[in-house]
Design brief:
alpha+beta, flat
Length: 829
């Protein structure tokens, strides 16, 4: 009842004062703040109409080169000593991209048949100062560690953003154009505070490295950075706070001119590889005592300051007496390179490893320098005489290699181990490969959802309003908060009421004029939010007629409005951006789970085994090759050489076993195929040849490796969903993308069929080779007393069906099954 009486009293007063003669007096005034701006900055044109509120926004006279945009009105009513005054302010944002002086002529304001004119206003637009002048609130500086440098010399580049008494946000990484030089990507910046000319600045440093690739004058920059700036607030004006929502601008630095000197031709050492800077070199070798023909690993550590990208490795001063392999980069970090090189001494006359040499250009002394290590002492014993081929096994006595038929032999071993990779029971890829599949599918789903949302937004105004309601509401509450800080109570209440009304209308599909607690409840909104809506409405109504209310009440009202928006926005169940971040995190986690493999020691064992093989020590070569396999590494050349060593040692079964392993990794290798065929012809082992229909239905099975088949299927899967995602993102929806996706899907299906066939035929531990010599009995039951069903020759390929008490049930190529002693065969794995 008291609230109703208060409303009637206010209405009575407003009606009474509306006929006061002073209320009919209209005055119009225009002003531009600030009157001088730089290109890209905005000024505010304000038209103040005193004496009335229902005055329409006037049109501005066109001014060439000046862009004027109406921002909105702000109304105000005040009662002082019984006298009521009403006013309205119309605001326009002014901006120009051209230097000049712009005059806006008299602006006509029409009200109830009368026309009022303002005085002409002038805005001066000046050129933007590169980098910002001293005392400016924001500036960008570009510096380098030096301006005179040499070709291939690496220097530090620093782009510094200095921010004074101004608010900025949405900082982008700087762009720095440069020609004739390589610029590293900017990492995450460093931030801090600094006092400059007596003023406190927030400082952000973006640091990188630059390496020129040609001599002459090089212009660096200007550096440019895009950010959002917020106008400084002026107390007493609600619009200025609302206008502080910010606008995007680009700030630039002064360019730098670098003098790039060519490397001198005088004194350039022979074999100079292009290194520029200052470095140190160390060299070690192991083992220090070897037989002639044994491999040695030479380790060369190059460290220091300067450019080492695309630089030739250190080299031996001489190579007489050694068989030398190319150095390989083992470790590469900033300022550090570690190379490993395999050397094999030819005879016992070698007493030392020659010195290692590396040349570079020293920029401090402006001359070439050559680093050279001391020779490394080495003890080389005479090569041992070849022994009769034999293999030592815990399960069988040493075997003597059978003489080969005249004109027939296996193809010689391979000199290079190839790419040694970590051995896995699953040849069809690890976590990363499968995560790529889900990433492609997730990208397609996100693109489809985006396309559907875009279609809804373009074709459904209500949905567009619903989608943008949250952002619009938060912008409105930001303006209300600014009005609160400026002590503009009426402007604050207007902003709160307008923002909540428009937000609920857009979010709940209600007419703007009919938003109240009851209509919100009928839309199924939670009672807590409905209570908040009622609280905001009652508080706005109470405070509007109680000018003396404290700041605490206004702050509580702002908190309640934020709570309404936040709680309604949290009801959105799914975020494509969040899903994309989850998929990306899983992908990064999978990539991080891949273990790096140190190949230096296995490579040495491989070369050591090759040396033993060439000396005829086949049993010792088998031991060295097996060390690499037991270290968890594999490659087709490794299995091929191991098969050769077993073959020469007289163990045809294990030779065929390793040839089969090599063939799985590299099916098209003619050397592997030839040796496998020859070994199997000597042992009489059975080989399961694929049928014609199998070759047609699964064209890749047996022709490419399982890993290559899986990679092909993965690539085609990515192509299919990549094309579909692009089709959804491209508003024109081109037909050729669907055709490409269809073709890729057909090829993907063929690759998947081949991969499935390969997996079924070569499941881990499901395929084995008979390694026992002679004939191996396959029995009807898993016992030595079982009746013999059939026999299997050494080297026969069988499929494992079951394992029990040391016995394996296997199936021959013709499908017949039998139990075989587990010691007589070994799985391909």
């Amino acid at each position: 009842m008291r609230r109703l009486l208060l409303r009637l009293a206010v209405v009575f007063l407003l009606g009474a004062f509306s006929h006061h003669p002073a209320a009919a007096q209209i005055t119009v005034r225009a002003s531009i703040t600030p009157p001088r701006v730089q290109i890209g900055e905005r000024a505010v044109l304000q038209i103040d109409v005193a004496g009335a509120q229902d005055v329409a926004a006037p049109g501005l006279p066109a001014v060439p080169g000046l862009d004027a945009r109406y921002v909105g009105p702000s109304t105000q009513v005040s009662i002082v000593n019984g006298q009521m005054s009403a006013s309205v302010q119309h605001r326009y944002a002014l901006e120009s991209q051209q230097v000049g002086r712009y005059t806006i002529g008299a602006i006509e304001v029409a009200y109830k048949g009368q026309t009022f004119r303002t005085e002409p206003q002038t805005l001066e637009v000046v050129a933007a100062q590169a980098g910002g002048a001293p005392g400016k609130p924001i500036r960008l500086l570009l510096t380098t560690s030096k301006t005179d440098l040499y070709v291939n010399e690496t220097i530090a580049v620093d782009v510094t953003l200095q921010v004074g008494q101004i608010r900025v946000g949405d900082l982008q990484f700087p762009t720095l154009p440069v020609e004739g030089a390589n610029l590293d990507k900017f990492p995450q910046p460093n931030q801090g505070q600094q006092v400059i000319d007596g003023q406190q600045y927030s400082v952000v440093h973006f640091q990188s490295k630059l390496t020129p690739v040609r001599d002459g004058t090089l212009t660096l920059g200007p550096a440019a950075m895009t950010l959002t700036t917020y106008d400084q607030r002026r107390r007493g004006s609600f619009f200025d706070d609302a206008f502080a929502e910010g606008h995007q601008s680009t700030i630039r630095s002064e360019p730098l001119v670098l003098n790039v000197l060519p490397l001198p031709k005088e004194g350039k050492p022979a074999g100079y590889g292009g290194a520029v800077g200052n470095f140190t070199l160390e060299a070690t070798a192991s083992p220090a005592e070897v037989n002639a023909g044994d491999p040695i690993t030479l380790r060369m550590v190059l460290s220091g300051r300067g450019n080492l990208d695309n630089v030739a490795a250190p080299s031996l001063t001489k190579t007489q007496g050694f068989r030398v392999y190319d150095p390989k980069l083992a470790t590469s970090n900033d300022g550090l390179r570690i190379y490993e090189q395999v050397l094999i001494p030819n005879d016992a006359t070698v007493t030392q490893i020659p010195a290692v040499r590396f040349s570079y250009f020293d920029t401090a002394q402006r001359q070439y320098q050559t680093l050279q290590t001391d020779p490394i002492p080495l003890t080389v014993r005479a090569a041992q005489q070849p022994q009769q081929a034999q293999i030592l096994s815990a399960d069988a006595p040493p075997k003597i290699a059978a003489p080969e038929e005249l004109g027939h032999d296996i193809i010689f071993i391979k000199d290079d181990p190839g790419s040694l990779r970590e051995r896995s029971g699953n040849p069809f890829g690890g976590v990363v490969l499968w995560l790529l599949q889900f990433l492609a599918l997730g990208g397609f789903v996100a693109a489809r959802v985006y396309d559907q949302r875009r279609s809804l937004i373009l074709g459904d105004a209500r949905f567009a309003r619903f989608t943008k309601a949250g952002k619009v509401a938060r912008d409105g509450l930001t303006g209300a908060e600014a009005a609160l800080r400026a002590n503009e109570g009426s402007g604050f209440l207007d902003a709160i009421a307008r923002t909540i009304q428009e937000y609920l209308a857009a979010k709940l599909d209600l007419p703007v004029g009919s938003v109240d607690a009851e209509s919100v409840r009928r839309r199924g909104v939670a009672d807590g939010i409905v209570q908040r809506v009622a609280e905001v409405a009652d508080t706005c109504e109470r405070l509007r007629f109680a000018p003396g209310s404290g700041t605490a009440d206004l702050q509580a009202l702002l908190t309640a409005a934020h709570d309404i928006v936040d709680r309604l926005e949290r009801q959105r169940k799914w975020s494509p951006k969040g899903a994309a971040m989850l998929v990306a995190s899983l992908l990064i986690f999978g990539a991080a789970s891949v273990r790096a493999v140190d190949q230096s020691s296995p490579q040495t064992s491989f070369f050591q085994a090759n040396t033993l093989y060439k000396q005829g020590e086949f049993a010792a070569a088998v031991t060295e090759y097996e060390q690499v396999v037991h270290a968890g590494l594999e490659s087709a050349p490794l299995y091929f050489n191991l098969g050769n060593a077993y073959f020469k040692a007289g163990d045809k079964g294990r030779a065929i076993l390793n040839y089969e392993r090599a063939l799985r990794l590299q099916p098209g290798d003619p050397d592997v195929q030839a040796n496998l065929s020859y070994a199997r012809s000597l042992s009489g082992g059975d080989e399961c040849a694929p049928s014609l229909w199998h070759s047609i239905a699964f064209p890749l099975a047996g022709r490419v490796s399982a890993r290559a088949t899986a990679s092909t299927a993965c690539f085609l899967w990515l192509l299919v969903f990549g094309c579909l995602a692009a089709w959804h993102l491209w508003r024109a929806h081109p037909r050729w993308l669907l055709n490409l996706a269809t073709a890729a899907a057909i090829l993907w299906f063929i690759a998947c069929l081949s991969a499935a066939s390969e997996w079924w035929s070569n499941r881990p531990n499901q395929t084995a080779v008979i390694i026992a010599g002679g004939s191996t009995a396959a029995r009807f039951e898993p016992a030595a007393s079982g009746t013999e069903h059939y026999t299997l020759k050494q080297g026969s390929l069988v499929h494992v069906v079951e394992r029990r008490d040391g016995w394996w049930q296997v199936a021959r190529c013709d499908g017949r099954r039998g139990w075989v002693d587990g010691a007589a065969l070994e799985a391909l794995e």
